[in-house]
Amino acid sequence: MRRFLLLILAVLIIVPGLPEPAAAQATDTPTPTATATATPLPPLQFTGIEPREVFNNGNNTLSIYGSGFTENCVVRVIGYGLLSTSFINPTALTAVLPAGVAAGTYTLDVSDGARTAQLGNALVVRSPAPQPTATSPAQPPPPGRPILTIRNYTVEPARVKAGEEFVVTIEIYNNGSRAGENTMAVFPGGAFLPVGEKGHMIWQLHINHTAVVSQRLRAPEALTSGVHNVEIELSANDWEGNHYDYPDSVPVEVIGKPTASDVTGKPKIVIEEAVTEPAVLVPGEPFSLTMVLANRGSRTAINVFAISGATDMAVPASGSDTVSTPRIGIEDTVTVTLPLMLSNVDTGGRQNMSIKLEYSDYSGGSYSDAQNIGVDIDTSLTRQPQLLIQSYTTEPEYLAAGDTFTLTIEVANVGGDDAGRLTLALGGEEGTLLAPFIPLGAGNVLFVDEVLKGESVTLSRQLIVDGSAEAKAYSLPIALAYDDARASRQEDVQRLSIIVRKRPEIQASFYRPPDLLMVGMPSAVMLEVVNVGRSAINVAELTAEAAGVAVSSEGIPFVGPLDPGGSAPLDLLLTPEEVGPTELVVSIVYRDDFNQTQVITDSLALEVMEVPEMGPGGPGGPDSVPPPEVQGPETALQRIGRALRGFFGLGS
Question: Nearest CA to 73 among 124, 125, 118, 11?
Fold first, then answer.
């Protein structure tokens, strides 16, 4: 019947001389026929449908594929009737098959009134399987599905003006567990108007794969400023023919057309002048900021606020950080003052201070602006205390593991104001970095009530070096904390260097005791120097000296490392010059762990005697002094006496 009606309509249009319909005869000027100017349309082709099988217990969306489709195309199920049809693009349509269609196999055709394409046995409609009873187990859900999301998007240009076109590009990502078949992206537009084809066929989109689609749209002239959404409809089937929809949207910032209130202008507040009192600011000191605000716009500004809280440079000295004025007319000025206090800034000189301005107009418009003013800052110590560790000493000067010593520190105030409540913490505030030094009789913190400017204080604490301390230079942190004139607590950490050395231990003894020492008579002495310590000594020089005695070395003194328990010989020739007791001082020059030359000494007692006088008869005469009797082996003195007697012919 429909084909018959279409045929009659075509005959009425084409055959000349036939009377036109009554509506057409009522006009004076005949309407030209459609065939006079129309371009022949391409043939309509119907190539496929998805899904091919559906159940009739609910509505089903059918995807129709082919070519030559237009917005006038309608899908018909032969034996049932026309379906609600939507145009996607010239190669794709969608149609909704309502519930209740009788089960069977159907032929479908697509027609736009002038062209028709048909696909035989294209659709199989089935009745649903009987529902399981309450006791039967539920059917398992299908094992997975495609899931489409918009992972990224771009808008070009980024800010869209009302009435202009723009391009939205989206990256579609399949985050599901099945590939998407006949994947499609449709841009209905929402607040925007699609330009060109609004449907994009992606076909198959595998798991974890992406597809990029671009759509040109236009922002309507009447669109207001703000963020509006571009609606996007994503859809896909799985390989079993199940259909899934994923509606989504992306935001677009729109700049609307100026309104009547915009055309009339707006206020503009500027800081035309700014001064501080005092002119030069000092950290921690209060000051007043006076600003001249001028309205250089074309509308009156109301509810004007100036806020200094846009920066951490200053804090309120009293009240808040905001000052306001109710109204500033066009080309008018208003002077406002803020009481502030400069924060503890580190950089002096000319610096920027940010002031935030907020105001509105009588039409309800709101405005915000941040402007910078210049202030002069003095960060020198002319008005602040500053404590420095001027000197420190240890007693004794050279320290070794296990030594008890006194650390004396001199702290000087080199600033421009007094410092109060000084605490000096050895090893940091908590004392955790004091090792290997251990306080004796008190804690690690020393206290001074006040240190006047230009003066210094001396503090002492008795410490002991840990017995297991290594020989090296230790950096000892000293935490200083004190109050300035404004009761602001100032903190600083300074460091001392304390050197711990290894103390060698030696013992000198006579390897061969000296003979009786007599003035002017040379005597050979053999010494032995023993390392009785626990570490080796790198001996650089081995010498000896005694008051009133000429000392010379016999042979080459020992030089080199002397291990613990080792000994080094020292052969000397002593020629006494004075009578009486004296000490032979043995010095070992060695290099310590810091490659510094150090000296350690030991001493031995000596006794020098007068040479006996000769009588008139010479040695052995009646007035001579008999030589002392010496038991045991012949001594050097006996050998000298024997030599003298032989010289004078009085003995061998």
Answer: 118
Instruction: Please return the burial class of 93, using the count of CB atoms within 10 Å of its CB with bins 0-12, 13-18 and 19+.
Output: buried
92 inside domain: yes
State both tokens at 208: 């974890």
Last residue of a domain, one of 377, 399, 424: 377
Whole-prediction pTM value?
Answer: 0.39
Lowest mean pLDDT among 122-131, 394-403, 475-484: 122-131
Distance of CA 170 to the CA centre of its chain: 33
Residues 6+ apart with CB under 8 A from 325: 293, 304, 334, 336
Same domain, 119 and 165: no
Q: Give which of 505, 440, 499 is closest to 469, Cα–Cα.
A: 499
pLDDT digits (tens, 9 = 90+) for 63-118: 898 988 998 999 999 888 889 999 988 898 999 999 888 888 899 999 988 899 98
Are 73 and 85 a contacting pair, CB within 8 Å? yes
> What is the tens place of the pLDDT at every residue in 182-232?
999 999 878 899 998 889 999 899 999 999 999 999 999 888 888 899 999
The answer to whether position 131 is within a domain reads: no
Quick one: 490 and 408 in the same domain? yes
> Looking at residue 214, which CATH number applies to its domain?
2.60.40.10
Rounded to whole angstroms, the Cα distance separating 472 from 384 reads 37
Cβ atoms 585, 546 nearer than 8 A: yes
Structure confidence by residue, pLDDT tens digits, 377-396: 887 656 678 889 999 999 99
Question: Where in the sequence is the domain holding 240, given as residue range(s)?
Answer: 148-255
- What is the rounded distance in angstroms from the CA atom of residue 558 to the CA atom of residue 153? 87
For tokens 């460091």, name the residue: 495
Domain closes at, from 453, 469, 501: 501
